[in-house]
Design a protein that fits this description.
alpha/beta, about 40% helix, two-stranded parallel ribbon, disordered C terminus, about 260 residues, globular
Length: about 260
Amino acid sequence: MVSNQKGGVGKTTTAISLGAALVQRGRRVLLIDLDPQANATSGLGVAKDGAGIYGVLLKEQPIKESIVTTSLEGLDLLPSGGDMAGAEVELVPLMAREFRLRQALRSLAETYDTVIVDCPPSLGLLTVNALAAGDAVLVPVQCEYYALEGLAQLLATIEAVRQRLNDRLEVLAIVLTMEDRRNRLSMQVTDEVRRHFPKLVARTRIPRTVRLAEAPSHGKPISIYDPSSRAAKAYDDLARELEQRMGQREPIALAGSA
């Protein structure tokens, strides 16, 4: 899954762009929009008016009936919408509230090669559901002054979930986003994050580009909107790198999340 409790770090853009890059590398991918803001849904040109993830988590609707196709063949979406606004509160009294997503995903084990969950910018029950369901976490970190703020808390939450709810959970990588190599501060942040987390930081860094910012307004991933752009190339490189990292891990029984 793609998670960071800080907003504006390129989390949704990374979820969409990475999913598309993996599809172009021959994988069948499901993207789950777990964020009540539903930016991944609109960013793929899908309306926010369906039952989607809300029905799966709160109404126990079959997940296969809630999945929709996107304009990119091989990339499917479990959309979010306005009804998710109160989902955190509605989950509280439910039985096995932390495992609702895990239970729903069991029926998809043979359907997709990769499941990507776009988590909300918080560490509430929705994010805990994603952490309890997946096996790998990708953490986007923006190349800005406050890059490390909250990162320790996120890693502590991931470790707590690993110990109590999901012993297969690991941080797959930290990916640096919105990098501007002409900006001295951006490069200083890159060096600082790498100094703190030398083994976790991905080699691939995502550049700040206008074309990448434009793509969601057209309902397309960057690899379709502008396949020759620097950002499209970066996400293809990231997909390749993450496949290598996943390949170095022990086999996972549960449907994978990147």
